[in-house]
Amino acid sequence: MSGRAHLMWDQAVTAYDFGPEHPMDPVRLALTMRLVEELGIDKAVDVDVVAAPAAGESTLRLVHRQDYIDAVRQASAAPESADPSYGLGTMDDPAFAGMHEASALIAGQSVAAAEAVWEGRAAHAVNFAGGLHHAMPGSASGFCVYNDAALAVARLLELGVERVAYVDVDVHHGDGVQAVFWDDPRVLTVSVHEHPSTLFPQTGWPEETGGDAAEGHSVNVALPAGTGDAGWLRAFHSVVPELLRAWRPQVLVSQHGADTHAEDPLAHLAVSLDAQRAVMETCHALAHECADGRWLSLGGGGYAVVDVVPRSWAHLCAIASGRPVPPTTELPEDWRAEALRRTGQQAPYRMTDGREAGWSDWEAGYDPGSPLDRAVRAARRAVFPAHGLLP
């Protein structure tokens, strides 16, 4: 296996643009890549910046129905004709010219990254433009048109991979990926997210554990609104490492939506950049421990487009490159000026929120009075026995 990292990037992914009033502003992608360049992450010896072609129809059909692909193509060519029965032309997913092409291009980056990791051309690969985990086989949902995360996993299975772990730490439940692999015992999906009673898509309850053929292969850790660093990290470390060590995936795919952050305008967790970075580091370590180093990491949600997203995903790229950026690193002045010019917002000064990313291990004890601990215990009880683990 190569020790190289592939950083998937094509400037054309910024054409994935729902319009000026939509929270998913493609400037977050452009500013992330600019920060990666300013920090020299892309120039590291073992990093290749790779632009892959758009996913073709045969690839898209690994997850999506043909009638839905046709509907996306039609809406892409004539946005006014978008069919809301396919989730297109809605408030969340407005149709725009070129929607099919931009969505297929993002999907193509994730699929190519998965191929490179499995075939040994790269140890790690990052597509921070990806992670569009809400799209369903037959409909758009939650700002997501094609589910690049599910397509990457499906391509791995097509290549002969027998065990894939998908770990999703976006603030929203990874419902589309869970739905696609609900009955597939070759895939373990783990989602750590805000509780469905307080956040879209109102799924991801601990009782959602997989279909009859894959019982215990859908794992949901539903956290109380307001959960901060210590609770978020405690929940992650109380569930994910044990499951991955038991499952022993051949490839780890992780989704790192930055919308868990306290400053994100669309959710209610209180996580810092430093905790996000800590989970990225843990996913990297778990890939080496459990999956022979094969790691594909994706972006996802994140709507604090200057304060949070570029810093978070630049850390992800740096960690995947094997050369993490110290949290105390100052943000380059040229980048801060570019962010101000493009958004009118003042950018932070450092690659940290100044927080210590600490937590208490599950073995330290269970507090029945803690809503966080009850959420963790519900997830463990729901799925751990299916993997031979004590809840």
Automatic annotation (TrEMBL):
InterPro entries in the record: AcuC, HDACs, His_deacetylse_dom, His_deacetylse_dom_sf, Ureohydrolase_dom_sf
Superkingdom: Bacteria
Gene3D superfamilies in the cross-refs: Histone deacetylase domain
CDD domains tied to this protein: HDAC_AcuC_like
Annotated pathway: Ketone degradation; acetoin degradation
Assigned keywords, A-Z: Acetoin catabolism
Record-stated family: Belongs to the histone deacetylase family.
Name under which the protein is recorded: Acetoin utilization protein AcuC
Organism of provenance: Streptomyces synnematoformans
